[in-house]
Amino acid sequence: AQSVTQPDIHITVSEGASLELRCNYSYGATPYLFWYVQSPGQGLQLLLKYFSGDTLVQGIKGFEAEFKRSQSSFNLRKPSVHWSDAAEYFCAVLKGNKLVFGAGTILRVKS
Amino acid sequence: DAEITQSPRHKITETGRQVTLACHQTWNHNNMFWYRQDLGHGLRLIHYSYGVQDTNKGEVSDGYSVSRSNTEDLPLTLESAASSQTSVYFCASSENGGAGELFFGEGSRLTVL
Fold it and tell me: How do residues B24-34 score in pLDDT, each as one tens digit?
């Protein structure tokens, strides 16, 4: 069975600092992977997705993620965090037509 | 613009009462999903539908039911609300071949006392 693990429940970074959110997956085939962001009181919004091809994918809001098959990882990165990036971030893997989500990582940005 | 709306956004009810959460999408998507969000668990799938008259159980379906009589709506019913069902509920939709991209509503916060 496939699953998604996000090891960090909370992360705090300073505004302007770089960010990396970790995601590990367990899947028996080539995974379709996603990162979603949830701002407070809102639904989830797709940041980026990986299906195949280039292992470094670009998303919205300056985010990128790198698929590493050898490490079963799909970590999300941003070179310089803005206060508006404070939110909860979810990694997910596609199972059929359904998404299986990780538990989420809450990002706090300090000024 | 197409959208997905949930109602009510907030509801407080008592144990044992029946509750229905509405979900309406104007994307004309075939696929619709209900998730619940709880701290430490992320989003867990309750029920889903791939089209009219189609419904399927997700990983946490006990105590919940859905029906799909048209493309736009997938109401979620709690037959007899329990305190363990206090949660935030999200409805989402996707198109066939949409490769997993879900469009989410803004959520319904349910409190069962």
Answer: 999 999 999 99
